[in-house]
Amino acid sequence: MHKPEHHKKSESNLDEGVRDKRKALVEKQIMEQACLLFAEKGYGGTTLTDIAETVGLTRAAIYYYFRNKENLLEAIMEDVTSAPIREIADWAETAPNESGGRLKSFVEMRIRGVLSRQAQMRVMEVAEAALPAELAQRHKAGKRRILEEYRNIIKEGMLRGEFRAQDDRVAALAIIGMVNWTASWFTAGRGKELDEVAAQIANMALQSVIMPQSRNASFVDAPTAIQTLRNDLDQLALLINQDKA
Amino acid sequence: MHKPEHHKKSESNLDEGVRDKRKALVEKQIMEQACLLFAEKGYGGTTLTDIAETVGLTRAAIYYYFRNKENLLEAIMEDVTSAPIREIADWAETAPNESGGRLKSFVEMRIRGVLSRQAQMRVMEVAEAALPAELAQRHKAGKRRILEEYRNIIKEGMLRGEFRAQDDRVAALAIIGMVNWTASWFTAGRGKELDEVAAQIANMALQSVIMPQSRNASFVDAPTAIQTLRNDLDQLALLINQDKA
DNA sequence: CCTACCGATCGGTAGG
DNA sequence: CCTACCGATCGGTAGG
Fold first, then answer.
1. 3-state secondary structure of B163
2. In a 10 Å sphere around its CB, with 0-12 CB exposed, 13-18 middle and 19+ buried, how is residue B83 labelled?
3. Of A93, A131, A190, A223, which is most buried by a Cβ count within 10 Å?
4. Is there a contact between B238 and A159 if contact means CB atoms under 8 Å apart?
5. Pair A158, A211: CB distance under 8 Å
6. Looking at the DSSP assignment, which residues form a beta bridge with residue B163?
7. CB atoms closer than 10 angstroms to residue A19
8. DSSP secondary structure letter of residue B210
């Protein structure tokens, strides 16, 4: 790195700017490497020496950038705890009203969120107990908000006769599982790419709760629905006799 | 198992039997408590003192039952790494041939497996990096086997024209997500019970890949048909309440 | 940012 | 000789 040796007056200002930039750069590098190590070996299983070595520093130097180990974890998890609520708010502004499209767009938005912070999601899993109370609370609020939104979409869809689900909470959690699990297997450049994966899973999520088309038409009013069920029971009787034979 | 209590000569044998039983009991207790602590605080974040305290022993006493910390982890993870392959083999003997029923029964079997070892699943997540090579390998083989079986069922269903999926690997991983994620939210006695949850998620998994137009696809066997009718009755109830309002 | 350290606590083991 | 531990402390290393 070049150092200006002529103009003595501006030297301190220039140095400060350069120094800040470099400091922010190193900070970011420490956070990235620490994130990967926490994700791999756990929070308690990762030492500050591990982190320092991967960024080419001594352990003591980490303390120049972060107050302590917990503070480093906090910096890494800051974004991932606040992002979901922000992203849901953004999504809500342009989300479709129709239940099917609403569910699909929500799932796609969530998959993009999860995969854009893949390593952090993993750290959240393994370091949840070590998280400072404030962040843990915020993270929990985010999870609650996500579950709530899924349940609202599903319940609304059921009321409109577009969806069918035994229990909206279980349905929501099942879909959350499909979405969150992507963080543990998706690798860019290996197999389908993000957009394709997001589209397919959004579609699967929709299919898992949507009314089969023909069935949908039968459930516009109670008498028609009851007639359909009568036919279904005849069908079921045939099936049972068939099994016996 | 009968033990002679008269003949003084065999007294040492009696003691040994009692001692062995007690030792096995304490061993099991240590494993259970350690499992819960590892699940909560991570492997590196749990000390042997933590474990010893919860079972009312000194830390040194742990070394009477287990060679060291890693060996304790190994004992806890032994079952969970070998069970899946064994359970798949058992399942295969009585599994339906028809793709829909096959997928559903596989999902239900897997959910039962996951939830019968809920804490161990969590430990596996957080302690994967600390797992001895042999167990890590076995666990990986189990995961591969599960993914393979899902893909086979899905591919077979697609060949028969019963299923539709953009990419069978993504479909399989999405369903695996639904199943595995149950470990992170299911609590017995809170909300739906295991059988209901397993049935609903199995049904959602099926719906997520089944051909949509085939309403008859729901009527391949009696249990599936009954499940469909249950969903329909829920829907009908909603419809009636809606009309009232 | 490093060297030189500290109080404490880590996993593991000695003798009794 | 063995068992089921305990109190104390080992060499190293943690966060700071």
1. strand
2. middle
3. A131
4. yes
5. no
6. B210
7. 11
8. B
> Which residue in the set A129, A174, A233 is minimally distant from B178, CB to CB?
A174
Q: Which residues contact A120 (CB under 8 A, 6 or more apart)?
A: A35, A76, A77, A79, A80
Q: Which of residues 57-116 of A touch B (CB under 8 A)?
A: none
3-state secondary structure chain A: CCCCCCCCCCHHHHHHHHHHHHHHHHHHHHHHHHHHHHHHHCCCCCCHHHHHHHCCCCHHHHHHHCCCHHHHHHHHHHHHHHHHHHHHHHHHHHCCCCHHHHHHHHHHHHHHHHHHCHHHHHHHHHHHHHCCHHHHHHHHHHHHHHHHHHHHHHHHHHHCCCECCCCHHHHHHHHHHHHHHHHHCCCCCCCCCHHHHHHHHHHHHHHHHECCHHHHHHCCCHHHHHHHHHHHHHHHHHHHHHHHC
Question: B56 vs chain A: nearest CA distance in angstroms?
Answer: 23
Query: Maximum CA pair distance of chain A?
Result: 100
- What is the CA A137 to chain-centroid distance, rounded? 17
Whole-model pTM: value is 0.83
Residues A196, B167: contact at Cβ < 8 Å? yes
Is nucleic acid strand D under 7 Å from B21's C-beta? no
Is B224 in CB contact (< 8 Å) with chain A?
no
> What are the tens digits of pLDDT across the range A40-97?
999 998 999 999 988 888 888 999 899 889 999 999 999 999 999 999 999 999 999 9
pLDDT digits (tens, 9 = 90+) for B83-123: 999 999 999 999 999 999 999 999 999 999 999 999 999 99
Is residue B154 within 8 angstroms of chain A, CB to CB?
Answer: no
Query: Cα B175 vs. chain centroid, distance in angstroms?
Result: 14
pLDDT value for B8: 39
Partner-chain contact B208 A213, CB within 8 Å = no
Smallest Cβ–Cβ distance between B230 and the set A46, A166, A243 belongs to A166
